[in-house]
Write a structure and sequence with these properties.
- This protein is 41% helix and 8% strand.
- With 336 residues, it is α/β, with parallel strands linked by helices.
- A hairpin with a 5-residue loop joins strand 5 and strand 6.
- The longest helix has 19 residues.
- The chain folds into two domains: 127 residues, Rossmann fold (3-Layer(aba) Sandwich), CATH 3.40.50; 145 residues, no CATH class.
């Protein structure tokens, strides 16, 4: 795919010119506070510690030309990758987190809106029919989880939410096109992983420091779950109003539908691999732009991402093992 990527050494005058451009770029205004960061498909899914898309775009536009090769070795939700391909650059990204790969793939894929709407209608009609009748089918779907995964689900999700998520995930899995199925997986994940914890019982999930809400109010404004002390008043840090999963899924679908790529676009090469195992030729990259993980245990990505990944066939124990190899967690060998 990347035969066009250059493999050369800078002539001395070109090297000096590049350094001058880099110096000018770095000395410019890199404060994008207040600027709109939700253009293109950047708003498809929450992700911890994302940098503003204007930052990689600035470096890409000022330090590369069209068809140059941009690398993000720790791509996360694909901010750099999306900016690269949307500005006609070749791009490749690496990440060990399966949710990162899924999100970036969907954000940079080309979709037919008519096909998305047709599949969406099938998912919603099927899910609502299942919720209104076939209790045995929902029980069978739930019993596919192992004991540890079920214990996690029962702690972090209300039983009615579990039923809705089971129904939605079941019909998403029936979508024949993998690319379209992935589109709906990202929507499904995005209604769980939000700062507020989405449709789970968690708070502060997008910042990877989840804690269970002490007071949860159902969609009909009646508290149905309460463990707070009698002298604690309800406040935004301990209380959440739970929303119906099917309704949130519908809302997010129409939001994301507006931002999908519909015209022919350069497709990046995405890899589910560690940044320590890059498979690239020497001198083949024109620019690297990445947002590396923070110090030990500052951002534990998998702590939040397992809330949605478990619905896609991963067990809690599988995800705990993956967590040990993710940079930025205290379990990674670098930080032991």
């Amino acid at each position: 795919m990347f035969e066009q990527a250059k493999s050369y050494k800078f002539p001395i005058h070109s090297k000096n010119n590049y350094i001058a451009k880099l110096d000018k770029c770095l000395s410019g205004d890199l404060n994008f506070h207040g600027e709109n960061g939700i253009y293109l498909s950047h708003n498809f899914h929450s992700f911890p510690a994302k940098f503003p898309p204007q930052l990689p775009r600035k470096f890409i536009l000022e330090l590369t030309n069209e068809n140059d090769f941009v690398l993000d070795p720790m791509m996360g939700s694909g901010t750099t990758i999306l900016e690269a391909v949307s500005n006609n650059r070749l791009a490749t990204g690496f990440d060990i987190d399966p949710l990162a790969l899924l999100i970036t793939s969907v954000k940079t894929s080309v979709y037919n809106k008519t096909l998305l709407i047709a599949e969406f209608n099938k998912i919603i009609v099927g899910a609502e029919k299942l919720l209104n009748g076939n209790t045995e089918k929902l029980t069978a779907l739930y019993n596919k989880f192992d004991d540890d995964t079920r214990a996690f689900i029962e702690y972090w999700f209300h039983k009615e939410t579990v039923r809705e998520l089971l129904a939605l995930s079941h019909f998403i899995s029936k979508v024949e096109s993998e690319k379209i199925q992935n589109f709906f997986k990202v929507i499904f994940s995005s209604i769980i992983i939000t700062k507020s914890g989405g449709v789970s019982l968690a708070m502060d999930l997008a910042h990877t420091r989840p804690h269970r809400a002490k007071t949860v109010i159902d969609p009909y404004s009646e508290p149905f779950f309460e463990i707070r002390e009698k002298d604690n008043s309800q406040n935004s840090y301990t209380t959440k109003r739970l929303k119906r999963a099917v309704g949130e899924f519908q809302k997010k679908f129409y939001q994301n539908l507006e931002s999908v790529i519909t015209a022919k676009s350069i497709q990046p090469e995405l890899n589910l691999k560690s940044s320590q195992c890059l498979t690239l030729k020497d001198a083949s990259v024109d620019l690297i732009v990445t947002s590396p993980p923070y110090a030990a245990n500052a951002i534990d990505y998998m702590r939040a991402h397992k809330f949605s990944l478990l619905w896609f066939g991963f067990s809690i124990n599988d995800l705990k093992e993956k967590e040990k190899n993710i940079l930025g967690t205290k379990q990674h060998p670098v930080f032991r």
